[in-house]
């Protein structure tokens, strides 16, 4: 099989806007799943609500498109009831960080054997561009018309603190690294979070002087700080540049996990 | 004949266990019918604990206690809260070392806690002594049934102690009637 | 091998679930339902099942729904505040036709209310609490034995109709201890699997689709959005929505004679009590004490879908009396279906109507 064999051809075209980053994330995920040798019969995609969460509807496996923020709780039931199934969750920043925040930290703590891929476009895309817990300070959205005044959630660091066995963050620009990180997540027993900073030209870029897709991707590329570089800056006592986010593998460990296939 | 039995004492005396054991004896070993209920409060320990059980030869339709006719009282607070309004035709057993009361009904003093502490060496079985006395005084369930129900319900390794407590209760009950 | 026990209603509920083959429980502690979860926590792991305490009731029912898609008989148990939290995902279970059992040991509300006292205040919430139009099934036990029997039956009904089934009990029956006969296994009607060549949401003649269990190659897409028979979202087409919602409603309503479970006493009576849950026991006591054939009793073991045809079992009825532990939630339903007066006898605060209270009501209304 190739990645294309995993797609529901009869559901094309998909709902994503031109220039959306979600397609790259789905493709990287399917390539990683394919690399694992998983089959369409033993793989389940689960999601909540939002642009990201429409992804399972385009994949030719069993899939649960659930309620807003609750995907990880549904996924916990699927995985514990049948550990033979491989479980992958697609989620977004509104889904995971806001309404689903509590389920997120407990999924990390339980370390249930699944991989959650968070498409973090820093905005509520499907509802038309409202601010989310990851909308950067100062950024314009329909609910932050004077610029967001709130600090952002660092989802990857939260997952590390809450106990997930594998946590990585990349961007939709870093396609190869992203695919490798997802593959590592799929391989690691326990909970894996792969956060992907991705572009939403329609509802984020348009209001934040990043109208072109290329501008958005360039923005993601130039604001990504490799974890090794961050650590070096810390060692040297140098400041971390303002507005940067860390990319790379933040943790890979073998804490006790639940739902691991015997 | 429907009997409504009310046990009261302080949390930790095994009040609830006592009513459950009594109900179990009636329902499983004496071919009678029983419904056990209790009062749930937010306190986990202390306070006035209260449990009730209805015992009847016929199936029990209305399951709530409205007019208890048999009282077992093991604390002063329990008496004040759940015992002092006992009707004149009721029967009451009080732990005579812990409760000072003269209710307006037939009342028997059983030194259950003192007996449990001195003769049996463990005050924790005072409730079983009271159960034994209750069965001897009222004949509510058979002695065989209550013994089986006690054995079902007590922790492993304490069976002999509890049977001794029960039998001591029978003797104390016989002594007051 | 069956065995006789003297146990609490909540424990008997858990035993009924186990006898019915429940293998997954997701729950969250809440008075007065917690003993259901505690007993499942004790028993399920030893039987190869899964017990998980989730972070809240929203997650509890989500986990149960997820487990159900792997083919497991799955349940959760809660009380008022947790039940309110579950409402969104109950709608999801309805829309996705996910069989699951939800136990509500009702307590006094609104809000935190009376955690340790009984009520029947969630009867309409159970029927209508999630947004949109739909149908569900709800049973109401009146004894510890019925906690066992009706919980087991709820699993059969949930599987048969691909719908959430509710055990709408209360603190009185949940916490009382009585003698109960525990059958090791009970009669089970397994979930009808998806037939080859059928679509995952293509209904049979009874309006119920076969179940496309995960992991069997069906590639079933399950969504809470309005969907077609393939399961694909079709969230803007009015005809698709009307067809789906009418089917979700009708598959339950049109089967209500088949689903119904009730007892009729003294069908020639002129004054008739209608009860569900423990108020039935006060009526039994009154009828035993008075032994009067002019007093009738319709006792519902199953309230939803409402068996309005059962009211016709009392053709001479001049008045229906409805003792409920709420402000008259089901008396409204009875009123819709009869031409004679329906007298609501509400009782709040956690105690049953006493026999004396209902005898007084009889004197006033007969």
Strand order of the largest sheet of chain B: 2-3-1-4-5-6
Distance between the termini of chain B: 21 Å
Domain module count of chain B? 1
- Overall helicity of chain C: 25-40%
CATH class of the largest domain in chain C: Alpha Beta
Shape of chain C: globular
**How many beta-strand segments of chain C?**
16
Count every beta strand of chain B, where a strand is a DSSP E run of 2 or more residues: 6
The computed structural class of chain C is: alpha/beta
Low-confidence stretches of chain B: none
Question: Largest beta sheet of chain B, briefly?
Answer: 6 strands, mixed
CATH topology of the largest domain in chain C: Rossmann fold
EC number (chain C): 1.2.7.3
Coiled coil (chain C): 238-265
GO molecular function (chain C): 2-oxoglutarate synthase activity
InterPro entries (chain C): PFOR_II, Pyruvate:ferred/Flavod_OxRd, Pyrv_Fd/Flavodoxin_OxRdtase_N, THDP-binding, Transketo_C/PFOR_II
Describe the structure concisely.
The complex is a heterotrimer of chains A (262), B (177) and C (366). Chain A is α/β, with parallel strands linked by helices.
């Amino acid at each position: 099989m190739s990645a294309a064999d995993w797609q529901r051809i009869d559901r094309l075209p998909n709902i994503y806007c031109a220039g959306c980053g979600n397609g790259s994330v789905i493709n990287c995920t399917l390539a990683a799943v394919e690399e694992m040798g998983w089959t369409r019969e033993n793989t389940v995609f689960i999601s909540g609500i939002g642009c990201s969460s429409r992804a399972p509807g385009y994949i030719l496996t069993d899939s649960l498109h659930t309620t807003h923020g609750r995907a990880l709780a549904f996924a916990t039931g699927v995985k514990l009831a049948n550990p033979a199934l491989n479980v992958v969750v697609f989620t977004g920043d509104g889904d995971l960080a806001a309404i689903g925040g509590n389920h997120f930290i407990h999924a990390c703590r339980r370390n249930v054997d699944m991989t959650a891929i968070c498409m973090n476009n820093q905005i509520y895309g499907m509802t038309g561009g409202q601010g989310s817990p990851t909308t950067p300070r100062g950024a314009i959205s329909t609910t932050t018309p004077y610029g967001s005044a709130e600090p952002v959630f660092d989802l990857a660091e939260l997952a590390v603190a809450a106990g997930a066995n594998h946590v990585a963050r990349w961007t939709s620009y870093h396609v190869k690294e992203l695919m490798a990180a997802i593959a590592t997540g799929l391989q690691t027993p326990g909970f894996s979070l792969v956060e992907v900073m991705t572009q939403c030209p329609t509802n984020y870029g348009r209001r934040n002087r990043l109208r072109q897709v290329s501008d958005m991707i360039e923005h993601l590329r130039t604001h990504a700080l490799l974890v090794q570089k961050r650590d070096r800056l810390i060692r040297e006592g140098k400041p971390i540049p303002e507005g940067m986010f860390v990319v790379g593998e933040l943790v890979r460990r073998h804490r006790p996990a639940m739902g691991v296939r015997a | 004949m429907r009997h409504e039995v009310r046990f009261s004492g302080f949390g930790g005396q095994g009040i609830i266990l006592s009513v459950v054991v009594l109900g179990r004896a009636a329902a499983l070993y004496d071919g009678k019918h029983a419904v056990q209920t209790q009062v749930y409060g937010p306190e986990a320990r202390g306070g006035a604990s209260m449990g009730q059980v209805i015992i009847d030869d016929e199936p029990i339709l209305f399951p709530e206690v409205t007019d208890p006719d048999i009282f077992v009282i093991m604390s002063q607070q329990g008496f004040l809260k759940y015992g002092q309004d006992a009707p004149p035709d009721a029967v009451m057993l009080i732990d005579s070392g812990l409760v000072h009361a003269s209710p307006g009904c037939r009342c028997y003093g059983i030194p259950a806690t003192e007996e449990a502490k001195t003769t049996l060496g463990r005050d924790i079985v005072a409730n079983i002594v009271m159960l034994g006395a209750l069965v001897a005084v009222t004949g509510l369930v058979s002695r065989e049934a209550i013994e089986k129900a006690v054995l079902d319900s007590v922790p492993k390794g304490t069976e002999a102690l509890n049977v001794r407590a029960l039998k001591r209760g029978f003797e104390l009950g016989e002594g007051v009637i | 091998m069956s065995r006789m026990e003297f146990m609490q209603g909540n424990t008997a509920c858990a035993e009924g679930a186990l006898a019915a083959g429940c293998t997954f429980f997701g729950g969250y502690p809440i008075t007065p339902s917690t003993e259901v979860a505690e007993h499942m926590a004790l028993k399920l792991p030893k039987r190869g099942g899964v017990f998980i305490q989730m972070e809240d009731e929203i997650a509890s029912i989500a986990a149960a729904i997820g487990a159900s898609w792997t083919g497991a008989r799955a349940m959760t148990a809660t009380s008022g505040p947790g039940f309110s939290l579950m409402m969104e995902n109950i709608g999801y279970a309805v829309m996705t036709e996910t069989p699951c059992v939800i136990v509500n040991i009702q307590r006094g509300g609104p809000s935190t209310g009376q955690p340790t006292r009984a009520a029947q205040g969630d009867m309409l919430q159970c029927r209508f609490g999630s947004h949109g139009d739909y149908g569900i099934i709800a049973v109401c036990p009146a004894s510890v034995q019925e906690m066992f029997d009706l919980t087991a039956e709820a699993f059969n009904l949930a599987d048969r109709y691909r719908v959430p089934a509710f055990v709408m009990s209360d603190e009185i029956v949940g916490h009382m201890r009585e003698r109960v006969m525990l059958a090791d296994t009970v009669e089970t009607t397994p979930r009808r699997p998806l037939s080859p060549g059928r679509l995952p949401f293509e209904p049979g003649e009874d309006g119920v689709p076969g179940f496309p269990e995960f992991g069997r190659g069906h590639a079933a897409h399950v969504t809470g959005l309005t969907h077609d028979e393939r399961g694909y979202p079709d969230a803007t087409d009015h005809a698709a929505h009307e067809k789906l919602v009418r089917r979700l409603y009708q598959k339950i309503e049109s089967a209500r004679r088949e689903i119904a479970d009730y007892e009729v006493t003294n069908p020639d009576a002129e004054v008739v009590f209608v009860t569900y849950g423990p108020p039935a026991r006060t009526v039994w006591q009154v009828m035993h004490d008075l032994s009067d054939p002019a007093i009738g009793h319709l006792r519902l073991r199953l309230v939803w879908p409402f068996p309005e045809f059962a009211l016709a079992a009392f053709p001479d009825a001049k008045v229906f009396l409805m003792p409920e532990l709420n402000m008259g939630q089901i008396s409204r339903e009875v009123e819709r279906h009869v031409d004679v007066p329906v007298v609501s006898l509400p009782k709040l605060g956690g105690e049953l109507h006493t026999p004396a209270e209902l005898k007084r009501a009889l004197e006033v209304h007969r």
